[in-house]
Design a protein that fits this description.
By secondary structure, the chain is an alpha+beta fold. The chain is 16% helix and 29% strand. The longest helix has 15 residues, at 21-35.
Length: 93
């Protein structure tokens, strides 16, 4: 699956388990197809009830969290007003 220009992957940093290998490639491709491009900021397994979660920064600077099932199908997405790795209110990352 090819995705248009302006696509990049930033460093991944968080305490949650990031995706690697084939899972990373498939989840990234599905998320970028869903958002129409952007830059992947973070990936993780099992976030918010999804098998995989991918945070994508869009051209307008907004960040969307795309949730995927085990088959890499989009099961939901939402604007994420937290940045990747932000400290939550309870002090966790």
């Amino acid at each position: 699956l090819a995705v248009g220009g302006g696509v990049g992957i930033a460093a991944i940093s968080d305490d949650d388990e990031p995706l690697r290998g084939d899972e990373l490639r498939q989840a990234t491709a599905a998320a970028l197809e869903h958002t129409g491009g952007g830059t992947v900021l973070e990936t993780e397994k099992g976030d918010d009830g999804a098998a995989f979660s991918v945070e994508v920064r869009l051209e307008d600077g907004s960040v969307v969290e795309v949730n995927l099932d085990r088959g890499f199908d989009v099961i939901g997405s939402a604007v994420d007003d937290d940045g990747p790795g932000d400290v939550e209110e309870d002090g966790d990352r």
